[in-house]
Amino acid sequence: MPLSNSKHLLAAGSLANLSLLRVWNEALTYTRPDTYIMKLPPSTAQYGAILAALALLSAAFWLLIAWAEHSRSGKLAFLVSMIIPANAVRELGSTYSPYLRGGLIRAIGTTGVLSITALIGIVGAVVLLKGLSTAYRIALACGAIVAPLIPVTVFQDIWTATHNHEAALRDKPTAPKLGHTGGRRVLWMIFDEMDQRIAFEKQPAAVNLPEFQKLRETAVYATAAYSPSSSTLSSLPSLLTGRMVKTVRAVASDDLRITYVNSDKEVRWGDEPNVFSQVRAMGYDTALVGWYHPYCRVLNRDLTSCWWTAIPLQFDSVGRTFGDSVPKYLRSLFETSLLSPFGQSLSVEEAARRIQELTAQARQAAADPSLSLVFLHIQPPHAPHAYSREKHDFSLANSPVQGYLDSLELADSILGQIRAAMEQKSLWDSTDVVVSADHSYRSSQAFDGHERDRRVPFMVKLAGSRDGALCVKTFNTVITPELVGGILRNEIRTKNDVTALIDRSGSSFHGF
């Protein structure tokens, strides 16, 4: 092979390796703390698929270089292809800067991001056309410079594939059933990132939320409720322990360390008393269905039944078999976790699948009469937004901000499905239902230009209730475990009891 061709092959392999930077980063450099939000690590087959993608991408770049060596249009095509490694570098940088991922979209909206991208593209095209050959040689040289990374990443891939830690991330056994029934029963639902202002007080005319409206008519409806924090990572530990958490630190797949407000002592969340341990101490069975937190590894000892799914990321949205992963790894190089030229991005497609599975599990748990406390942490209306409110299916694409409206209607639909499943078992009227959120909509500024309102919905429908009540007291929803315990001990029986508890909390603390 001529020397020039050898250099071109080396440059092609190097550019392919660089294009897979995000993939390498996710597959090779994740740490023990990173495994906290992972359902499973990449499979052995996925590591083989990355090597296959590297080979195919190298061949593609080599062909582009061969064309570019003899054609001006080939040089232009090669330079345009540099978008692929540039996107990979951006993805890697997003680990350190939120503005390289969703943060920029939240700040200026999808239209703003696309406008900036178009402007950069136009300026880049003008520069390239004036110095095409020079730009081509510089890009080729830059590719060759990082060629030493090829054996490093390939070796790491092989080593990691042969040292798979999948077993360490498996869910743990739940607690045995206690079997005590006949008392009160509570269903507690958290709709992730549901915003009080947008969903209920300034609801866009295009949005229809009949199930939430029907629930409000028979519930204590609070208009000034604040969640413990603006982060799912810290808000859920606060809500489930009933204590304000000020710091959180993931340590391992089953270990989240938390520090409470007014304390400097870091403790393991799974070892702390919580609403489930409180209810099991009463002799009742508990269940949890949720997402994001690995509940079935952390809180399993206090749960009779547990199911959870992870937040859909690019690395776990490509399938776990070799055949599925190779084409999807290559496709992922042309998209982000939320935007794709192919329609829905891989992670949005995966989100749709997981939301439907979570909904099925939620319906089943809510309609199980043997469970005295059922806690549901439901992803919608949190992104990724996959549901189309116009088509009533999971076909929405490239709508990372405005898709929030679609996900609000999906949340309403899920509430309706859960209610219907309970009514089929004659459980809805006899169950005390609490509905709230872990935090409000963090992209509200980009959504409608209004400053973020940190209030969240809070509704309490007591068993047998036929009418509602309005509560305007400012409070923090961290009191919910106290509410749940009071209901199950039959200390809270009326709407006045609920509002009295809120009044006694005396908390105007709005969280972090």
SS summary, helix count: 19
| CA distance, first residue to last residue | 63 Å
CATH architecture of the largest domain: 3-Layer(aba) Sandwich
CATH superfamily of the largest domain: Alkaline Phosphatase, subunit A
What does this entry look like structurally?
The structure is a single chain. Helix 1 (3-19) packs across helix 3, helix 1 packs parallel to helix 5 (83-93) and helix 2 (21-28) packs parallel to helix 5 (83-93). The chain folds into two domains: 3-169, no CATH class; 188-238 and 272-505, Alkaline Phosphatase, subunit A (3-Layer(aba) Sandwich). It is α/β, with parallel strands linked by helices and 512 residues long. It contains 19 helices and twelve strands. The longest helix is centred in the first third of the chain and has 29 residues, at 102-130. It is elongated and about 80 Å long. The strands form two sheets. Strands 1, 2, 6, 7, 8, 9, 10, 11 and 12 form a nine-stranded mixed beta sheet that branches. It has helices at 3-19, 21-28, 44-68, 72-80, 83-93, 102-130, 132-145, 149-161, 196-201, 210-216, 232-241, 275-281, 295-298, 322-332, 346-366, 403-424, 444-448, 480-488, 495-505, and strands spanning 186-191, 220-226, 245-252, 255-260, 266-268, 286-291, 305-309, 373-378, 432-436, 455-461, 469-471, 475-476. Helices cover 47% and strands 12% of the residues.
What key attributes describe this structure?
single chain, 512 residues, alpha/beta, Alkaline Phosphatase, subunit A, 2 domains, 9-stranded mixed β-sheet, 3-stranded antiparallel β-sheet, 19 helices, 12 strands, elongated, disordered C terminus
